[in-house]
Specification:
Elements: H1 3-14, H2 23-32, E1 41-48, E2 60-64, E3 75-78, H3 84-90, E4 94-96, H4 98-105, E5 113-116, H5 121-124, H6 128-131, H7 149-157, E6 160-164, E7 170-177, H8 182-198, E8 209-216, E9 222-224
Parallel strand pairs: 3-4, 3-5
Antiparallel strand pairs: 1-7, 1-8, 2-6, 8-9
Helix pairs in contact: 2-8, 3-7
Amino acid sequence: MSKVSKNLKKVLESYDKTKSYSLKEATEVVKKITFTKFDASVDIDVRLGVDPRQANQMVRGSVSLPHGTGKTVRVLVLCTPDKEEEAKAAGADFVGLDDYIEKISGGWVDVDVIVTMPSIMGKLGRLGKILGPRNLMPNPKTGTVTMDIAKAVQDVKAGKIDFKVDKTGIIHTAVGKVSFSSDKIYDNAKEVIDTIQKLKPSASKGTYFKSITMSSSMSPGIKIDVKSIV
């Protein structure tokens, strides 16, 4: 058995998969039990007591992570020619309109966020089947459909992320990297959870936060005691 395998076995033995940890404890555990040669992403899965099939129970929004995501976010701006320089100056990776719409129609989705203007949204309807499942469709509620292109690009680059509940009632989102200090992971995760709390639909009855789990790209899930943070 290699040294790494022995270390991993020892660390995993110290982690109790049946226990519910506080959020603070979970941020320390996830760093201990992740053995990767790359800087793994740290994610949280928040299971909500909502029925996403009901429009009045859809939970979606955006949040600016205090310490950013730790990854380079590729931003595509779909805009009219008069806005192209503004988008480029703000740091957009790709800027254009019809040419990129055609590329996306052909299956190109090599971006993390798409920002556009209200007048362009009509052109994006036919891309719904491609962008929708990948959570790439711009939306006014998340600030990605706006006339202030520069601010939208800068916010995304600085660590603003969008999230929405999936059809099974779970919000899955990254809250940093394993290389982050546990304090930074905690701050980011708490900001996401607090934001989800504020977005609780009035139509949602019973328990809102059903469960919260933290994990890295290569670690088991760590159960978080919901009572410790909400």
